[in-house]
Amino acid sequence: MTRIYDCSVDTEYAAGMRLARSAIGRGALVVIPTDTVYGVAADAFSPEAVQRLLDAKGRDRTSPPPVLIPGIPTLDALAQDVPPPVRDLVAAFWPGGLTVVLNAQPSLVWDLGDTRGTVALRMPRNKIALDLLAETGPLAVSSANSSGLPSAIDAIGAEDMLGSSVAVYLDGGVAGGDYEPIGDRPGDTSSTIVDATRFAQNGGKLVIVRNGVISRDAIAAVIGDALAPVGFVAEEPEPEPDPEPEPEPEAPGPIDTATDAGRP
């Protein structure tokens, strides 16, 4: 039976964390508080667990979940070609409400959905989330809500939407209280998402693809002109030309017996 564990009570915190670790290990789902909103978490390296997460939210593989990580050193283990402005941003805003989309390390053995070789990474600023991540490693975590509904900011709200599809709910109080709700929707305390996957092709620009609790002005104050302006449209890559057709081999001509007579 699914239960909500009040993490402000030491005994419930210990029990909830133990059961959450066990649930992640067997491929089940856990709801956790973060500094922005509540998230529903799964083992990022278990395709079955990630699919269970997508099913619980009513999403398909075209909406792959972000990955929460326990510390900045994990960034290079999961992403390649991290541009210097991204390193500046994570130094300034991690742990916190900034998600960065990067090209994933090609050696990773995971299936988050139709990622096109990218991964969205964030280090949350929440003790409960970080304690669990320290035990489990990176987790696929999406907002704790049914697709199309507002993200839950408390455990009760998450349970109302996700119900028994989740094995363990960790209650850390109301999320998002440390931020001004300046996201794309009224009252939204979701993280800001910055895309760096086409940094080189974009002329050394990072693109904000979702407004959230870290403001554009705050990001610009850190990376300056490396932030793409509002309305920036990335250039599409040039299609590669079709290969030239191979020439047809010429038919052999008649043998010249006079000149070929001395050949072995």
From TrEMBL:
Q: Does the keyword RNA-binding apply?
A: no
Q: Would you tell me the protein name for this molecule?
A: L-threonylcarbamoyladenylate synthase
Does Transferase appear among the keywords? Answer: yes
* A Gene Ontology BP annotation from the UniProt entry: regulation of translational fidelity
Q: Which reaction does it catalyse?
A: L-threonine + hydrogencarbonate + ATP = L-threonylcarbamoyladenylate + diphosphate + H2O
An MF annotation (GO) of this entry: tRNA binding
Concerning InterPro entries, the annotation shows: DHBP_synth_RibB-like_a/b_dom (IPR017945), Sua5-like_dom (IPR006070), TC-AMP_synthase_SUA5 (IPR050156)
What does the sequence similarity comment in the record state about its family? Belongs to the SUA5 family.
Q: Where is the composition biased (Acidic residues)?
A: 235-249
Q: Which GO terms describe its cellular component?
A: cytoplasm
Report the Gene3D superfamilies cross-referenced here.
Answer: DHBP synthase (3.90.870.10)
Q: Which organism is it from?
A: Cryobacterium algoritolerans
| YrdC-like domain segment(s) | 14-214
Question: Quick one: where's region Disordered?
Answer: 231-264
The record's Pfam families line, in alphabetical order, gives: Sua5_yciO_yrdC
> Can you say where in the cell this protein is located?
Cytoplasm
| PANTHER family (UniProt xref) | SUA5, THREONYLCARBAMOYL-AMP SYNTHASE
Q: Which SUPFAM superfamilies match?
A: YrdC/RibB
- What domain of life is recorded for the organism? Bacteria
Could you say which EC number(s) this protein's record lists? Answer: 2.7.7.87
| Keywords, in A-Z order | ATP-binding, Cytoplasm, Nucleotide-binding, Nucleotidyltransferase, Transferase, tRNA processing
